[in-house]
Amino acid sequence: MKIAIGNDHAAVELKWAVKEHLESRGIEVVNVGTDTADSFPYAVSGFKVGKLVASGEVDGGVLICGTGVGISLAANKVKGVRACVCSEPVTAALTKRHNNANIIAFGARIVGVETAKAIVDAWLDARFEGGRHEARVAMLTEIEETGGLKAAE
Ligand code: RB5
Asked: In what order do the strands lie in the sheet with 103-107?
């Protein structure tokens, strides 16, 4: 499995910890984030990880900024991306089970290292349930691809 990881200046240390954790699970990690504390726009890393995930070059993405919000918003502008911000593992698992999230995001100023690892593990270990969730996720794709939603007319 290959996972892309991206971050801004607020999340360099947590990025290294999460990267090491992913590698300890036998996952190949593609690091496209900044590696220094110099100010770095979260949109760049969010966009890069979003493109890698949407193109299928990697199996999923992990994004970390101060809150996880800006970087996930950037990724979600890329067609095909479902990036979800989580601060705990229960929501992280549900984002995969119900929303088929292909990117998980969290904040380095919000969660500590152990919670970050638990979030990543919960998301990686969960499986999309399909069924009734399939149609709901398909609506997100419909909005993205057509700019409209038939069910809302
Ligand atoms: C950077 O200071 C901070 O704004 C950024 O990391 C993130 O929290 C934005 O959503």
From this structure: 28-31, 2-7, 60-65, 103-107, 83-85
Interval 92-145: pLDDT, tens: 999 999 999 999 999 999 999 999 999 999 999 999 999 999 999 999 999 999
Task: Using most ligand atoms within 8 A of CB, pick from 65, 71, 73 the residue to mutate for ligand 1.
Answer: 65
Q: What's the token pair of residue 14?
A: 């947590």
- CATH of region 2-152, choose from 3.40.50.1580, 3.40.1400.10, 3.40.50.150, 3.90.76.10: 3.40.1400.10
What are the extents of the domains in the chain? Answer: 2-152
DSSP code, position 10: G
Atom of ligand 1 nearest to the CA of 69: 10
Q: Which residues line ligand 1 (CB under 6 A)?
A: 8, 10, 42, 65-67, 69-70
Nearest alpha-carbon partner for 43 in 32, 59, 35, 54 = 32
pLDDT at position 15, please?
98
| Size (the chain), residues | 153
